[in-house]
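Hi F.,

I've been meaning to write this up properly since the lab meeting, where we talked about keeping a consistent format for the predictions we share between groups. The idea is simple: the sequence comes first, exactly as it goes in, then the structure tokens exactly as they come out, then a line or two of notes. No screenshots and no reformatting. I'm using this chain as the first example so we have something concrete to point to.
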Amino acid sequence: MLGKIDHVGYLVADLEAATAEFQAMFGLARARPIERPQFALRGVYLGEGEGNVELFTFTEDELLEKRLGTHSVVLDHVAYEVADLDASAAILRRSGARFAGPDLRFELHEPVDLGGVRHLWTMPETTFGQTIQLLQR
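Output, unedited:
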């Protein structure tokens, strides 16, 4: 059901500072920016190929504070590429998982299409307290 790990996502308080720190520490090249205003989200992908890192933040303070708490960086999710998003989501739903967008505000029943890639994020309270992102290219 789960394919290879596509990326690991970190929620950060200060996107620019975290980007500089991750690049200096891990030697990761800046791959591409992320702008998702519909989810009050902006970020950057670091690395190319396997082992990609997504750093992101929310542009709405309430969302950021709720998910980040008193930390400046938290491991937010692991993203898996799947061959069939609908089939993978159905298996997880049968086990009690529910899905949302990246902001985790509302339950979703259909995938989010971002640039031709379909995505779903599990609501952490339904998957062992962790958010799992599924994506299908």
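Notes:
Residues 43 and 78 are 16 Å apart (CA to CA).
The chain has one domain: 5-136.

If this format works for you, I'll send the rest the same way.

G.
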